[in-house]
Design a protein that fits this description.
Largest sheet: 4 strands, mixed
Distance between the termini: 34 Å
Radius of gyration: 15 Å
Strand order of the largest sheet: 1-4-3-2
Length: about 130
């Protein structure tokens, strides 16, 4: 078994597409800016984040038709230089909710939200520094 992706159900697909592609700088697989599906990948690693139009999935699973409330997910991305990456994405329109700041003695983090309210945690692993 292999984990293929983590998929986020979103109501405003174009806004989320821009956030993950243009603000966070992840690479879209196909360029489907209006959905109903797109997978995004970082420059390295095999993990991916996908967006799925919530209304389309509600056609399959009626319970998804209700508006989502509360924090439903936490997407975690590791970066080599947290301060530089945060400065870069703030310049592209990101709004940090927290950090960059230490989380433990081995990790620094920053947090922000995508247009749907999903939490994104950016991590810098201090043990990997040479």
């Amino acid at each position: 078994m292999e984990l293929a992706q983590v998929r986020l159900l979103v109501a405003d697909f174009p806004a989320c597409y821009r956030f993950y592609g243009e603000v966070l700088g992840l690479k879209p697989q196909s360029g489907a800016q209006d959905g109903p599906y797109e997978k995004f990948s970082p420059a390295v690693g095999s993990a991916g984040i996908a967006l799925q139009d919530r209304a389309m999935m509600a056609g399959l699973l009626g319970e998804l038709a209700d508006a989502a409330t509360g924090h439903r997910s936490l997407v975690v991305l590791r970066v080599d230089d947290l301060d530089a990456y945060c400065e870069e994405i703030v310049g592209r329109g990101a709004v940090l909710a927290h950090g960059p700041a230490p989380m433990t003695e081995r990790m620094r983090v920053a947090h922000l939200k995508d247009p749907e309210g999903n939490l994104v945690e950016l991590q810098e692993w201090l043990l990997l520094r040479t």
